[in-house]
Amino acid sequence: MNDERIELTEKQKKARRSRSIAIGLALGALVVVFYVVTFIKGAAVMNRPM
Question: Can you tell me the distance from the alpha carbon of 35 to that of 45, in angstroms, rounded to the nearest whole number?
Fold first, then answer.
């Protein structure tokens, strides 16, 4: 196997970290939105006609 690796520059590492943080925050915000919507609508879900 070929053990050559690509070394990232500091600028690339910083960009990757910033991107990862942005994705994590976006996912966290989506979880919070789903939780809030579920909490608000969840109590009335059984009151609908079958």
Answer: 15
Length of the chain: 50
Specify the pTM.
0.67
Sorted by where each begins, the domain ranges of the chain are 10-46
pLDDT tens across 21-33, in order? 999 999 999 999 9
3-state secondary structure of 45: helix
- Taking the C-alpha atoms of residue 13 and residue 7, their distance in angstroms, rounded to an integer, is 10
Whose CA is closest to 28, among 36, 42, 40?
36
d(CA 42, CA 36): 9
